[in-house]
Batch of 3 targets.
Target 1
Amino acid sequence: MAQRVGPTRRGVDGTPVEPLSIKHPNAAGIDIGGASHYVAVPPDRVGKGEPAVREFGPHTEDLVAVANWLCACRIDTVALESTGVYWIALYELLQARGFEVWLVDAKSVRHVKARKSDVLDCQWLQQLHSFGLLSQAHRPDEQVCALREMSRLRDITIDERARHTQRMQKALTQMNVQLTNVITDITGETGMNIIRAIVAGGATAWPSRS
């Protein structure tokens, strides 16, 4: 059952305003960074005098330590921002450890008002997530992610191949070797035979038949 927090407030017309209810009492928030990650848990999940916010490094053993600390704090759901690609390793590790991971768009977090200036990003994420005020970004399943990454890599490779071909054509033109006027594709078998012969210092692309 959701927990209600705070006294009853009233609007400008005197109508009672329903206080926010905690929907995820076991929620944590993580501020993702390239050099370190800041993790916030509810204050009642740590011992007296212990901080509810901890800083962890970006390495694998640090990510494992994050998961272990969250387990020790009885956390079952985590919110983290989709910052660059730094979130991917931690996201996948937490999912593998059984946590419900909410990937959050940074824009949706900034749109929520009433933030106090002395609250860290990870604490703000934790508070918003506990009250159910965050929108979860779509994250495809593992197979779709792998296929999408392969498709992206293929497109990059094709683009790189085209750029390298253009550089080869430019270098040949600067040497006044007008291959493009003779053959349609310098990366084909004939074109590559000629280029290899030029690189090897030969006068012809084919060995003598005499």
Note: The beta strands are 3-4, 9-10, 16-17, 21-22, 27-31, 37-40, 53-56, 77-81, 100-104.
Target 2
Amino acid sequence: MLDWLLKRKLSPMAEALATEYPLVAAGQGGILSGTHVASHLGWRPIEALAVGDMALTFDHGMQPIVDIHRETLLLTSGAPNPLTCPVYIPQDALNNRAPLWVMPNQGILIESDLACDGQGDPFVVVPACALEGYRGIRRAEPETRLEIVVPRFAQDEVIYLEAGLLGFSVSPRDLLSFDTSAQPDLYRVLQPETARELVIDMITEESVWATTLPMGPGGHGAAEYAAMV
């Protein structure tokens, strides 16, 4: 592990991976319509869910949806707004069977030994915007009209999106005064800068790992995911 940490320190990767948009904290978030959610009725498009429907959660099994926030955003021409430009997550980047878009402040639960080293827990929630550059994740506007859906539960939960991606859902509260440090420790929600540092470490580790594996038919290991130094 010290080897790749040294490589990270000596390489310009952190500067090269500077995000084009400012980071935002994980908050209300939002998932674009068309994304499938694991529910008591099977895999359902998120826009088809209603209050009272049951969704499969990461820690508490099937839980009823107590509120659903729906919003339509019309994107204007010109420079993208950093608060509304969605994050595109390619197929298989985070165990998702299909590509999907989420809002930049959508929390994503990830598992990493690096998080365990730094935070004492391998599972942490990061804002989607902090994942830019990891396995092809990037900002991308799919169209000019965005249909955003935010399911909420009685407490903070994590739900399954497109098979294996883990989306964080905050319980109904005054989101204008949302303070992750004041919430119960159901999930460890990282601040944007801490989350970005973790993601850069994850990219660096995969890059070093990929270049040390024997060459196969597809190149060095998971080269399609690795950001090469």
Note: The helical segments are 2-10, 13-16, 113-119, 192-212.
Target 3
Amino acid sequence: MAHKVFLLVCALIQLSTAAVEVPGKLVKSSSDGPFVAFAAATEPTCDGVSVYTTCKDCNNVLVCLGSTQSTKNCTAATPSTPFCVNGACSATYDSVAGCTPSGVACTGVGFYPDAKNCQIYHYCEGVDEESSVYECPPNYVYNAETTLCKQKIYATDCVTVKCDENKIFVSYGTSKKYYAFCQFENNVATSIQLLKCPDNCNFDGNSCVFKCPGTGNYAHADPVKYYQCYYSGAVLTFMTQSCPTGKNYDKDLRVCVTPKTTAAAPTIIE
């Protein structure tokens, strides 16, 4: 009996600890500019005799083959392990060598998980801008539902994108909010873009589908349209409505309004 109580207490402590979520640390700001790989005082070279590997920079492995040498770019060859650490491609970067993870080209605004590294996440300020990069503490992984870092208890807590050449879009774990587009070259995923469904939309495996959160009007991706949610019997359903000509839907007022125009600055004649 005492043994069972002890196990129960341990389980409760573990669950309590796991429930604590913390913010990540900013490791690269979008204002820092493009990622720059570390540069050694003397660029690594082969000794001309031995067979071994070493890191040429943050993303390239220098392969020494006796009197010859070659370079392997981890980012291009193995996108899931884009960094070079101790002469091999790795999913994690070598911070001791001065490496930092690269930002991504933003597809929207807000927080986004990293496609390949569950300890990394991104914050985007605008479409097509470079993201700021955040890193979770050791033994923590990013939780896309809360935009915080949670303790890694199980292997499944680490969520990454699993590309499928037979699909246009793929899910990000079990998320209904995030999904991804993978580009392939020679059967290898060469780039992955994380995408996010609009508010009140869920990814169904193929596209983002609107789901009524309640009755009333809700914003549509097209500014001149809106969703009108209502009950048909016991089923909550919706219709897509269009605003009158010359009006846009205001998601705060939840009605169609005439867009505000900005008056031109007066011309000063000297």
Note: The mean pLDDT is 86.
